[in-house]
Amino acid sequence: MSFKTLFYTTALALAATATSLRAEVTQYPLTIENCGFSQIFDAAPKNVVSIGQQGTEILYALDLGDRVSGTALWFTEILPEYKEQNDKVERISDNMPGFEAVIAKRPELAFTQYEWMIGAQGVVGTRPQFHDLGVKTYIMPTDCDGKDNLVGSDGTRTEAFGIGSLYKTITELGQIFDRQQAAAELVEQLKAREAAAIAKAADLNVDQMSAAIWFSSAEMELDPYMAGRSGAAGDMIRAIGLTNVVTSDEEWPTVGWETIAKANPTWLILAEMDRRRFPADDVEKKLEFLNSDPVASQLEAVKSGRIIVINSQEMEASLRRVTGIEKVVAAIAKAE
Description:
InterPro entries: ABC_Transporter_SBP, ABC_transptr_periplasmic_BD. This is ABC transporter substrate-binding protein. Pfam families: Peripla_BP_2 (PF01497). Residues 1-23 form the signal peptide. The protein has 2 domains: 30-178, Nitrogenase molybdenum iron protein domain (Rossmann fold), CATH 3.40.50; 190-335, Rossmann fold (3-Layer(aba) Sandwich), CATH 3.40.50.1980. It contains 12 helices and 14 strands. It has helices spanning 3-21, 53-61, 83-86, 99-103, 127-131, 164-176, 180-201, 232-240, 257-263, 283-292, 300-303, 321-335, and strands at residues 30-34, 37-41, 48-51, 68-72, 90-93, 109-112, 136-139, 147-148, 156-157, 210-216, 225-226, 243-244, 267-272, 307-311. Helix 6 packs antiparallel against helix 7, helix 7 (180-201) runs parallel beside helix 12 (321-335) and helix 8 packs across helix 12. The model is unreliable at 1-20 (pLDDT under 50).
């Protein structure tokens, strides 16, 4: 084969690959079915209020920071790569914003990571409240697909969480904002990283290990909020191959330390965060408790130092989930 023929053959192959990866351009009006509501977008929203750090970081990843006029519900610092953009956006509230505060930003779209923020019993408002004012709403499918948010303190899974709902969130946002190419590339990057981490875990005999994830506690002496088996955090350790010792289908059920001690997990995974709503939000308080409580201190994971600390957002249905998986796998590999 001549160089000229090889050049053109390679060029054609590359062009074909680029064409296959090229996402479609959004055709408006666009109808989106989202968490029980059907909405029609006549154009990409130009003004968005984002309630929930996970969703805000996805918007920034899709280069939509200039559309965000306000944010709320923060657990930890913004990812470094988005700090410059985030500094330009008003933080309406660290926690739950008021309905009037959101509407004051005159958004075309109110976007939330949790249905308990904007939903049937939304603490910010109901979806009809926003729709009556001409404001569209979008809830991350990660919090409503296969989940009943009217049962349990943080909702109960009617179906086990699947990572596909995160990819669905990214894909649909790409459609709504006509960022489909960026959305497709982001999903592929996340899939590749997770597959690599899971492959590494397969060589560590993790299927013979168990784990429990402690998010926080309303008071240190009260039962802790632990990751249920069917939620996003439960799916994270299931993807790695670990067995979750908590069998509840609630997202974050409270579980007594006596029950956890009886299950005696191989690993304890703790959430660290900048939020200080509860005393146990502070990971140092968690560690002090584990080393002093007469029940928790007897866990083999505590006595053997098999404790892994990751960011709270790395155990949620977020862009950071894959980083959490990588950290857990790396910690197990280091202990082998």
